[in-house]
Sequence to fold (223 residues):
Amino acid sequence: MIRFENVGLRYGLGPEVLRDVSFHIAPGSFQYVTGPSGAGKTSLLRLLFLSLQPTRGLLQIFKEDASTIKRETVQRLRKRIGIVFQDFRLLDHLTTYENVALPLRVWGVPEDDYRSDVTELLEWVGLGDRMWVHPQVLSGGEKQRAAIARALITKPEILLADEPTGNVDPPLARRLLRLFIELNRLGTSVVIATHDLSLMEQHKARRLVLNDGHVDVYQNSGQ
Fold:
């Protein structure tokens, strides 16, 4: 599904923030991306979402070369990728329901085809009673749950989540983790960027550990 071979990334003329990164992500896999603050976790997710191109090396996503990919191909591939941003990126003029449904509306899906799916997903993440309010009145944790629901509504083949439990309490964090695990069980590949050790201990999975621009891969144990 995703292949990194000796990938490097720098911003402008600055030093490389990622160096000689090599790993594969298989269909139906589950992995954490972890490491100290500033290690490059968000940059790695941006590469995976095709919002950045590598400075060097080979990055293939769904067998497409990220360095030579065309704009229309990027748009097509992003339909297969769900992403939860750390800053939520909810639109203030839309209700919670409308924010979650937005990807489907952009794709031209009739509301009659998705209304029940959006409602059911919002109920599951605990926002059934906040469906028709705007983001300005949501708490940080509620905004996080809305952002997660928006990423999931398209039933993506791969889900990228940048610190998805960073603004919720431990019981909700466990509930969200169970959702990610269930999605993975149904076939979605999951990539969670996190520094939360307790979260990673609750569900053992492969860890991609970033340190000083490099990635070390630990299988299922996190050692």
